[in-house]
Design goal:
By secondary structure, the chain is mainly β. The chain has a single domain, classed as Porin, CATH 2.40.160.40. It is built from one helix and 15 strands. Strand 14 and strand 15 form a beta hairpin. It is globular, with a radius of gyration of 30 Å.
């Protein structure tokens, strides 16, 4: 009697094991994959190789032009940029100014610049960018002022997540005034920029720079110079 019960129990276990294997088997001999524990993450707004930005330490990828607006101090800038290669681009910027050459002095003026940017090093989520923005400026007042401006600078960029870029940089605004008197303006400015991508075509950000501005032709005293602008970018 005891042996009969043992045989019945063993047979029952075998039948249960075969039934379980039949449920998992899809008929092709391979077990069905287990369902994922979590849902797939949504794709990033800015995919790898699809880089672009207004104030971050990156250039625009070929195939898409970018329009931008920068609002704050020393004025409002309207820009357009076009990629020359995967690591360089050029553009045009028109500035409506109410700050005099990056200083806290206020005076109405306009400027036109030709920004050129290059990514000289890139590894994983880090990048190094250099730029030069040659152009012309003019200010209206008791005496109309006219001159040449050549800001140069560099920035180190970091992308902590796919849709956010941070950069830390230094700029050296250089300006020469020709009309009425020959004056030279120069001063290093340090700061950071942040740019977030709302979708594949729109970015918002902020650019901040602070530092002394010198006019060696007039005085050795330094003035406070700064840039503080909110940015909006639209990629075609």
């Amino acid at each position: 009697m005891f042996r009969t019960l043992i045989r019945c129990a063993a047979l029952t276990l075998c039948l249960l094991s075969l039934a379980a294997r039949a449920d998992v088997d899809d008929g092709s001999g391979a077990a069905s994959p287990a369902p994922p524990l979590v849902s797939a993450a949504p794709p990033p707004v800015v995919a790898p190789g699809d880089h672009w930005g207004v104030v971050s330490a990156t250039t625009n990828a070929p195939g898409h032009d970018v329009f931008s607006v920068e609002v704050g101090f020393p004025g409002v800038s309207f820009g357009y940029s076009h990629a020359m290669s995967d690591t360089s681009d050029w553009g045009i910027k028109l500035d409506v100014l109410y700050g005099f050459l990056y200083t806290t002095n206020t005076q109405f003026g306009v400027a036109a610049r030709l920004p050129l940017r290059w990514v000289v090093a890139q590894r994983d989520r880090f990048s190094v960018l250099v730029h030069v923005d040659p152009g012309l400026f003019t200010y209206a007042g008791s005496e109309n002022l006219f001159g040449l401006i050549v800001p140069v600078g560099a920035a180190i960029g970091f992308q902590p997540i796919n849709d956010l870029r941070l950069s830390f940089g230094v700029d050296l605004p250089l300006a020469v005034q020709f009309l009425h008197s020959a004056d030279f303006f120069v001063g290093p400015q340090f700061g950071f920029a942040v740019e977030m991508y709302v979708d594949k075509h729109v970015s918002v950000g902020m650019n901040l720079r602070f530092g002394p501005m010198f006019v060696p032709t007039e005085t050795s005293d330094a003035q406070l110079g700064f840039v503080a602008q909110a940015t909006l970018g639209y990629r075609l």
